[in-house]
Amino acid sequence: MSKPTSIKTSEAVRDRLRTLAEDRSTTLTELLEELAARELTAAGREQRAREAAHELGIEYTERVEQAGPTRRHATRSGTGGGRSTSICRSTAAGSARRSR
């Protein structure tokens, strides 16, 4: 096991994390470990996007890359889930037209 350390945060954040841990019947330390393990780094997000584009048969262009943050924002804010699909489809269609 790793050596324990401290993280400075506001009381509100600490209380929220404690509540989340209690709701999941886990400790605050285990909750933080879980959250840290599942979040991707910028490099990890780009790699995942490249793999997804490949699986969908989409060329991973700068335009597709730029559409990524829009999709993530829409997904996290709960707005426009279908919008991201049309971005990918229109981008793929544009790529297909250009390659002809």
From TrEMBL:
<feature type="compositionally biased region" description="Low complexity">
    <location>
        <begin position="84"/>
        <end position="100"/>
    </location>
</feature>
<feature type="region of interest" description="Disordered">
    <location>
        <begin position="65"/>
        <end position="100"/>
    </location>
</feature>
<protein>
    <recommendedName>
        <fullName>Ribbon-helix-helix protein CopG domain-containing protein</fullName>
    </recommendedName>
</protein>
